[in-house]
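User: Design a sequence. Structure:
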């Protein structure tokens, strides 16, 4: 059986994939530029396959956006069910999403992040470590102490 933390990490990764797909399908001409850089030769004077190929690629990215969002919400729901606390599932998903977004942004779009972004990432991951290190209190033991 898969733990809630694994579901949360996968949900964060799929959230990053969904946002990258949205940027590719709805954003500027990233796909056309990538196609042009790929060295697709010219079919006829003044026309390249990239002049029309980016349209079906945008549609594929749009489909990937919706499908990865659906699977991401499924995994996040499973993470909420299997994690000891909803805070743990939420912070793990958020941290996974940040790391995945940074990786995909650098890989696909050549983005870099400022020092403040990395400070925020460090604080988020520190909070995640605190959450993962703590143990949930047993509610039944607390109820027994109150009755005495």
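Assistant: Done.
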């Amino acid at each position: 059986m898969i733990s809630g933390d694994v579901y949360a990490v996968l949900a964060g990764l799929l959230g990053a994939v969904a946002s990258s797909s949205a940027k590719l399908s709805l954003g500027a001409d990233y796909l056309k530029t990538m196609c042009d850089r790929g060295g697709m030769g010219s079919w006829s004077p003044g026309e390249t396959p990239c002049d029309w190929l980016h349209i079906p690629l945008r549609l594929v990215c749009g489909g990937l956006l919706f499908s990865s969002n659906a699977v991401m919400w499924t995994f996040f729901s499973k993470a909420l069910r299997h994690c000891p606390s909803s805070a743990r599932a939420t912070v793990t998903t958020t941290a996974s999403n940040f790391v995945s977004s940074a990786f995909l942004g650098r890989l696909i779009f050549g983005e870099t992040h400022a020092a403040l972004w990395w400070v925020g990432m460090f604080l988020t991951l520190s909070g995640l470590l605190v959450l993962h290190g703590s143990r949930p209190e047993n509610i039944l033991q607390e109820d027994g102490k109150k009755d005495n």
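The CA atoms of residues 64 and 137 lie 41 Å apart. The chain has a mean pLDDT of 82.
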